[in-house]
Amino acid sequence: MYRDETLGCVDCGRQFAFTTGEQEFFATKGFTNKPSRCPDCRTVRKARQPQTASTSYSRREMFQATCSQCGQRAELPFQPRNDRPVYCRDCFASRQSYR
Q1: SS3 state of residue 17
Q2: Using CA atoms, how far apart are residues 71 and 60, in angstroms rounded to an integer?
Q3: Degrees to nearest 5, angle at CA 81 with 80 and 83
Q4: What pLDDT is stored for residue 93 in this prediction?
């Protein structure tokens, strides 16, 4: 079904092989377009892209507050507002189980 193809890179203009193995991998991932960049240019392009939310999550700024239910310290990923109650992880989880 698949055959090795030779494609041209849109960035550097070099020819590169789009192998049957790569084509099968693309098909399993649901990709419908052929790659437009050679492996070297793809690597350079990925290195220049900003980090995704999942990789930058660990550096997220956390805010301190007092839990409205138990009074313990709560660490929140958002700036709490004075007009809304905030809950520590345990109290929040127990409130979610009642719904």
Answers
A1: strand
A2: 24
A3: 140
A4: 87
Q: How many domains does the chain have?
A: 2
Same domain for 62 and 31, yes or no, is no
Distance, in Å, from the CA atom of 35 to the CA atom of 26, rounded to the nearest integer, reads 9
Number of helices and strands in the chain (H, E): 4, 4
What is the tens place of the pLDDT at every residue in 57-91?
556 788 999 999 999 999 888 899 888 999 988 99
Range of the domain at 12: 5-49
- 38 and 63 co-located in one domain: no
Say if residue 12 is in the same domain as residue 45.
yes
Residue 30 near residue 1, CB atoms below 8 Å: no
Beta bridge partners of 66: 73
Question: Whole-model pTM?
Answer: 0.49
Q: Decide: 88 and 73 in contact? Cβ < 8 Å.
A: yes
